[in-house]
Amino acid sequence: MFCFKRLLSLCLLAVSAQTLVDAQAVPQTIHLQSRVAPVPATLRRRALNPVTVPLADFFLGTDLQWFGNISVGTPPQTVSVVFDTGSSTLEFASTLCGAACDNQVKFDSTKSSTFVDVGTTSSITFSTGVGVDPVVGANYRLTLRSARDTVSVGGLTANNTSLFLITNQTAKFGIDPFSGIQGMSARAQGFFASLINQGLPSLFSLFLTPQAVGHAEMTVGGIDTTKFNGSLTFASLPAGSSSTWVLNSPQLFVNGKSTSVLKASRNIIFDSGTSNILFPTATANAMYALISPDIVPHTAEPGTYGIACDLIDTLPAVIDIAFTSQSGAPFNLTIPSSELNVGPFADNPAICQTLINAFDGLSLVGGSVLKHYYSVWDVGNQRMGFAAI
Ligand SMILES: *[C@@H]1O[C@H](CO)[C@@H](O)[C@H](O)[C@H]1NC(C)=O
Ligand SMILES: *[C@@H]1O[C@H](CO)[C@@H](O)[C@H](O)[C@H]1NC(C)=O
Ligand SMILES: *[C@@H]1O[C@H](CO)[C@@H](O)[C@H](O)[C@H]1NC(C)=O
Ligand SMILES: *[C@@H]1O[C@H](CO)[C@@H](O)[C@H](O)[C@H]1NC(C)=O
Ligand SMILES: *[C@@H]1O[C@H](CO)[C@@H](O)[C@H](O)[C@H]1NC(C)=O
Ligand SMILES: *[C@@H]1O[C@H](CO)[C@@H](O)[C@H](O)[C@H]1NC(C)=O
């Protein structure tokens, strides 16, 4: 699955005749418990220290996505990417892309002495039934060419990293203030896998603040303990969750109440690239029933709901998502009422879209939860940690 945030609420699921998987380089295997026998000190790899990179907020009336700089090539060219826990590969606009990518900074592979053209072409099409700007047909489609080059993040360098150059894209991508996407899935790949092999601890942390607060950041290989008070609560990924960041939740609460529909156990995906939250239709309806009868589906854009903008800001809409910590203790991640309003619909600006989208088949949360916590994404221990901020 390739899933990230577009505009106000899309979770993009890749469907493609010629899928990215076909073109993808074989992921590097990371041996997480590799050091069993003692190794002579002289052979011990030198640990890499964690690095922190600042993130900017793609804000369109609401916080959408957070992106930062990496460098690619020799000499290095700066490429801005969304660090997306909902996907796993690196792709960015290149000079092979013509006018379609003119709003993005383009990487010029001819200026990099370390660039290797692998030359496999593929395309990836994104589809979902929901969104303020709904996906229709193939209106979110990237054309890609596989390659390898040096990639650096915060000064840590990974040679010969698999990546994809965007050679064409549909117009919907034109508004992005960044050039690409760096997947940060629960199985380390690309630059992150290389850095782990070089001795970097196999975790990263996100501090995704609202635009008004600023100073958002990602720490690769560590935890920035200056960004929260109190302690981190860790929960384990379910066995077999593969590369998806997912936690089991036994129950949802809205405004302190629960119902039989909300008491169901479900696995919830954590996608830093998506800002709205997605639940199956019956769950979304049960949640809205505890907020206001005036919130109704916005039929022009399937999966979305809305209410008159002048009613929305006074509605209590506290969502508690229950989880179980590694020690067996229950804890909640809480979305405050202030997240309910994600802004006016384009086709009717008097109606404001509400946070929860109906999406049958999965449950997914993103930025609207993550910006209220410091989050730790522990690949090596297959767990996630949260501390309130
Ligand atoms: C990314 O680098 C550009 C300069 O190339 C700089 O203007 C911008 O502020 C940087 N963005 C972040 C989030 O650090
Ligand atoms: C990466 O490549 C550079 C230049 O070829 C080399 O100096 C460096 O040692 C390489 N780094 C690693 C970790 O292999
Ligand atoms: C770069 O990676 C490719 C694919 O993994 C490998 O075949 C090639 O030998 C590597 N090149 C160098 C210089 O390490
Ligand atoms: C890029 O894609 C658009 C469709 O989105 C298509 O019309 C156009 O011909 C493509 N350009 C190239 C150079 O392939
Ligand atoms: C931690 O608590 C202190 C004292 O209340 C406060 O001044 C500080 O801003 C807090 N730091 C964070 C990162 O929340
Ligand atoms: C989670 O939230 C619900 C609803 O507000 C509350 O009843 C429950 O006590 C909370 N659980 C924890 C562990 O705080």
TrEMBL record:
Protein name: Pepsin A
Catalytic residues identified in the record: 84, 271
Signal sequence extent: 1-23
Disulfide bridge positions per record: 309-352
Record-level Gene Ontology MF annotations: aspartic-type endopeptidase activity
Organism lineage string: Eukaryota, Fungi, Dikarya, Basidiomycota, Agaricomycotina
Gene3D superfamilies named in the record: Acid Proteases (2.40.70.10)
Keywords: Aspartyl protease, Disulfide bond, Hydrolase, Protease, Signal
A Gene Ontology BP annotation from the UniProt entry: proteolysis
A matching Pfam family: Asp
Annotated GO CC locations: fungal-type vacuole
Keyword ATP-binding: no
Family stated for the protein in its record: Belongs to the peptidase A1 family.
Domain Peptidase A1 span(s) in chain numbering: 66-387
